[in-house]
Amino acid sequence: MSGTRMIAQAVEAFGGSLMSDPSVPYHVRSTLAKISMCGSTHMGYDEWICHDCGATETVNYHCGSRCCPYCNAMRREEWMLKRRDEMLPVHYFHCVFTVPACLNVLYLQNRGGFCDALFRAAWGTLDAFGAKEDVKLGALAVLHTWGRDLSVHPHVHVICPPGGLNLKALRGKDGARGEVRWKNLPNVKDEATGGYFLFPVKAMGEFFRGRFMALLTDEMDHIPADIRRQCFEKPWVVFAKDTVTPRLADETDAEKAWTILDYLGRYVYGNAIHEGRMREVGDERVSFEYKSYKDGGATMIADLPGEEFVRRFAAHIPPKGFRKVRFYGFWSPRCREALAALQEGMNVPRVPLKRGRMSTADILRALGKDPDRKRMCKCGGVLAMYYYPGDWKVILSRMLQPGGQRDGPAPWNSAAS
To answer: Residue 369 contacts by C-beta under 8 Å, 6 or more apart in sequence?
Structure first.
């Protein structure tokens, strides 16, 4: 098999045993089942008919799962637009907090508790180092649980500015009300590269290790002594280097500034792999490409048994209700007024204090597209739409039963969007 929607084809072809296994969490099995039907007529479809020339076009519906690689394009764009509005005209640092591979077995035992401890330890480290300088930082943290080859590799990406709220100014004097004022951090310069670190990375690594292991001990029933020993044998390294400043007059530099934000936004919705990396879905195996940083970033091809590919894909479906994007410090929702005050002091548009969901029309307008454009036929006629509901709920219940499967393959349509 090849062509479009190869991830869905792989899940459909090789995920049957996993989807019908009662020991696998229900939300994981239902997510896989929905992805296998995403973009097929089982989800329902619209039929567009031109009454002038009789031409027809079928547009299939999507599953809407937050882990689906084909869905949520508008929600992803909305997320990106809102984050851009919240950025300040300062340098931002990209930090990556990762843990040793010996802890992967504990991640598989308690994914929710493990990742929650990872979030709390990462922010706790930044917050503690910022407090030493009387600064309340703000951070955006995004969880990734995968390596480029879909292996288990839990880590947290954090975007953080080199400063924050001046805590002394916030506290005020003699009981008087404080004021919102920005304070820069004394960043650490790397003499070898000329770049800057947010904080001394060695000290950050040691603090992060101690904080994470303490939190993980509270989350887990038991941490084997040999795993604990391995965690303290080698130093933990926190990646923390500066990126390009956003909101610059130079459009070229401004576009570079959003690179890391675009990278994180790509995985806020979706999962560990997108369709562009897929190469082939065969009768027994699945192949995809990935970058091997051990080989200097060379592009490699992974060739896996079909069931192993689906198992790796499913390992990165987060627990139901788990928040894999979190905001901290002055970037948190409760500090929206402080963020707006900082933006006003830096002469950039203030972020709204309350923000609801954007409509599809508003998102399209923000992207420079016309939401009122009518769907036209090649002959120039206007297309009329007719909706046909799907039977995905019936098929879903059938697929999730022990030994269950759908009757026949999903009816893929090349015209599906």
So the answer is: none
Can you tell me the distance from the alpha carbon of 273 to that of 277, in angstroms, rounded to the nearest whole number? Answer: 7
Give the side-chain half-sphere CA count within 13 A for 368.
Answer: 0
SS3 311: helix
Secondary structure letter of residue 270 according to DSSP: S
Handedness of CA 200, 202, 205, 209 (dihedral sign): negative
pLDDT at 271 exceeding the cut of 70: yes
CA gap 234, 100 in Å, rounded: 9
Instruction: Compute φ and ψ for 318, nearest 5 degrees.
Output: -70, 160
414 pLDDT above the threshold of 50: no
In the 8-state DSSP scheme, what is residue 334?
G
Separation between Cα atoms, residue 115 and residue 119, nearest integer Å? 6
Give the Cα separation of 86 and 336 in Å (integer). 9
Measured in residues, the chain has a length of 417
Question: Residue 258 and residue 264: Cα distance in Å, rounded?
Answer: 10
Residue type, 255: E
Contact 1, 281 (CB under 8 A): yes
**Alpha helices (H) along 151-240:** 167-171, 201-219, 225-233
CA–CA dist 127, 139 (Å, integer): 9
Distance CA(369)–CA(363), nearest Å, equals: 9
Q: Which token pair is 233? A: 């044998």
Strand partners, 290: 300
DSSP-based three-state secondary structure for 387 = strand
Average pLDDT, the chain: 84
Contact status, residue 218 vs residue 252, Cβ threshold 8 Å: no
Q: Around 76, how many Cα atoms within 13 Å sit in the side-chain half-sphere?
A: 21
Structure confidence by residue, pLDDT tens digits, 218-244 = 998 889 999 999 999 988 988 877 765
Instruction: Report pTM.
Output: 0.85
Q: Cα(251)–Cα(334) distance, rounded to whole angstroms? A: 32
How many Cβ atoms from other residues are within 10 Å of residue 244's Cβ?
17
Cα torsion 297, 298, 301, 307 to 10°: value is -10
Give the pLDDT of residue 222.
86
